[in-house]
Sequence to fold (348 residues):
Amino acid sequence: MSKTYRVAVVGCGGMGHHHAKTLVKNPRVQLVAAMDAFPEALEKFSKEYQVPAYADIEAMIRKEKVQLVFITTWQSVRAELTVAAAKAGVKGIFGEKPMAASLGEANQMVAACRKHKVKLVIGHQRRYMPVNVTARKLIQAGAIGRPQVMMRRDGYGLLNRGTHEIDEMLYILGDPKALWLYGQVTRKTDKWERRVRCEDRCMAEICFEGGFRGIYESDLPEPVLCGHAVYGDEGILRRGENGTLMLMNLKSPGWQVIYPEPVGTDQLTEFLDWLDGKVKGHRNAGETARTTMEIMMAIYESVRLRDVVTFPLKTKRNPLDLLVEEGRLPVEVDGRYDIRAPFPEQKK
Fold:
């Protein structure tokens, strides 16, 4: 029989409300508390969902007997809160993306949850899209032969949107092991994303085990590449219209239209099933999200080293911060700005 878990939301901004609206509709959980560093946001959330408000995560977990914590804060504080919640004795933690602001922070989160036997999940929800689930199955079944190249393109920052694109690439390809990476970024403006430094442009070539390549680019000029295609030595798989997949291979002439079937679960349901012992793992487990973080940080590190980066990545701090602090990415356009949470001076 499924248990009912007592849940708290830490971070009462947009994503906190997004998750809360889902939680209050699910009979397998009970929303019992909230926490936020901003009093106004906390008060609004507390009133809307009729839950007590807290400023201290350990006190909240202890007093409200919290079993699950949804940490929907900015990434710069997520590691500290995750470690504190794990030590306080929760059974599970759901964190938003990006997992953290550096590989070192991601390592701390994974280690704390492993030590205290806490199940950690990070919200890369694209792993539940029918088109991606079907694409992964087709590639694993050999529909395009041996994968050669996969390309992804997006904008608005590596840690902002790129975390989804790279994690999606990993999932579709079957979560392969990355061997090496070569990347490039520019940062001529003082650009930030939720108080973490952000680049202006970014691209990388990732070599995975078996030799196939992942190509990622963000905010590069047009014309754009086809960012939803996987090329193999015996075929091509790409997205079509209205949630379909288009497959061309040696088995059939022309393009085949494939209609993905419903997935049958989502990241919250799978999280609860994992906690209940109904499934052996979660496709968004913390260790998996850590790999996505490692690849993103390796892009910055490649710029810092001016060379190929091999895995595992050893640099624990965010290499983009190191580049700026070392004076190697000087700002050419004055005026800091945050693309997600404007600085006070941006509102003037």
